[in-house]
Amino acid sequence: MVHAMKQEVLSPQGYEMLRNPELNKGTAFTEKERERFGLRGLLPAGVSDPAVQEQRAMANLRRKAYDIERYVFLLALQGRNERLFHRLVLNNIEEVMPLIYTPTVGQACQEFAHIFRQPRGFYITPADRGRIREILQHWPDQDVRMIVVTDGERILGLGDLGANGMGIPIGKLALYTACAGIHPRQCMPIMLDVGTNNVELRNDPLYLGINEPRLTGSDYDSLVDEFVYAVLDAFPSALIQFEDFLTPNAYALLNRYRNEVLCFNDDIQGTAAVALAGIQASTRITGKDFKDLRIMFLGAGSAATGIGDLIYAALREAGLDEKTARERLWFVDRAGLVVKGRAGLKQHNLPYAHTVPNVSFSEAIRQVRPDVLIGATGTAGAFDEDTIRLMADINERPVIFALSNPTSRAECTASEAYEWSNGRAVFASGSPFPGLTFNGQEFRPGQGNNAYVFPGIGLGAIACDAVTISDEMFLEAARVLAGQVSEQDLALGALYPPLAEIRDVSLAIAVAVADKAWQQGLAQKKRPADVEQMISQQMYDANY
Question: What is the DSSP string of 43-107?
Fold first, then answer.
């Protein structure tokens, strides 16, 4: 009988090893490894441990004059030694996260075609119609678990950036790995390049996307449909995160697929969970009961109404009936207060349209007397001095959330909120603001960054092999995140834990999300005796 010889899978050798970002360790290759992999002569004689490599990389990063240069440096590092990149991000997250995500990623997307160095991510265009499942096979890793996809139409608060929006999926997935330990090889950034209505981009000779107006209507819907079901067939264990779609499409896609495919929309649901957690934490400062809060939103798009929807669910869970829970939530947009009978209201606004006269923003504050004011406008300065002072007149500790990204679009700055409220504001923002001292009181403004939630949601969902993601999972994520805020954090006015703790936060959220999936019968994997141990053992370790 002839037995087939078992073939050994050979590792790349020499330069091929050094050019493989998954395997490359640079100067950290030991003497034995240099012999084994044919690296002798290809590296300097000195062997550096990872801590020294990190020190060198951070020193080079800090030498850069501008944040956009730091962004380019970090992407180059990711492209040649991804374990060192993720180690550097996690160990220096307060310094590095603003460079790989908000606010710097906004500028990176605006300049994406100009700073382009090497391909990263996957692009799907209308020319691929009928072949999307086929071309997905071109992706080098077929065990895809996490996909972040955008069509680039509403990038942060910057509008339609077309194919330049690829910077968002790239940045989000870097955070999935650093913050929640999703393996880089299981992450896939995708751009649905369906054109752009940004004429300035289309006139830019360096622009890399389709030089046509945006695809719309049934042509757009059918392309997205083909994409989603091609992914479901090619990568049946993958979670799809929809990111930075224009509000009507964001809601349409979420409602279309949420009960059929493992997916969620971070702008609607992730933002909501982070905001809800901050509001829940704020009650420990204000002393108010969550179910008694009156909450007003400036802005009525997908982010604002997504927050409203989850707060409504939390209020119902707290015991309020439908009518009373709706009465706690008020929305104002460019046309004034969202009220019944007002022309032009979108479907997602209708549940929050009250039977009262339409009034201006400031008059709405006077009449409703909100405990919490949330900005999701994308408009810098929307919370002016009169607004903050009015909130401070109504509340001993006014809660002010300026959530718009990037930092240049925040409704007000942390220093403005504290100054105009005489240090009484309980402040949170979407982008980072530095700590400061006002009237002798030290403040660490809380950043309501979605990175506190979406990595843990994704980790929990794929760890238990969930079939769909329920609203209750986001409620659980918010509850866990609020519970991670310490008394020391609250004493500094911070409604979120330090970013340095984000890996632990993600694990705690993942455990809660997986538990909820098992409770709801949405998990396909058998529940282990120790859920936390099972999930933590799956998390990617960037050390070598």
Answer: S-SPPPPHHHHHHHHHHHHHH-SSHHHHHHHHHHHHHH-HHHHHHHHHHTHHHHHHHHSTTHHHH
